[in-house]
Design brief:
72 residues, alpha+beta, Alpha-Beta Plaits, 4-stranded antiparallel beta sheet, 39% strand, globular
């Protein structure tokens, strides 16, 4: 399943491999804050939780987690 995880702040694309080959896109919001969207393919729930654990370990503030495709 593919998920989009939004976090507060800018995350460099060099973290992609460590976060499960995530596509990393940072955007500047109208209020001046930066939001980074990680698009990841998590094969199962433990894989998703592993990615979320790494986000926590990086002291990033998660904003949302959304599944963007249906289960295979």
């Amino acid at each position: 399943m593919v998920y989009q995880i939004k976090v507060a702040g800018k995350l460099d694309r060099s973290w992609s491999d460590w976060l499960g080959k995530a596509l990393i896109v940072s955007e500047l919001e109208e209020d001046g804050t930066v939001i980074t969207t990680l698009t990841v393919d998590a094969t199962d729930q433990p894989a998703l939780f592993g990615i979320l654990d790494r986000i926590r370990d990086m002291n990033l503030m998660p904003i949302s987690v959304e599944r963007i495709d249906k289960e295979r």
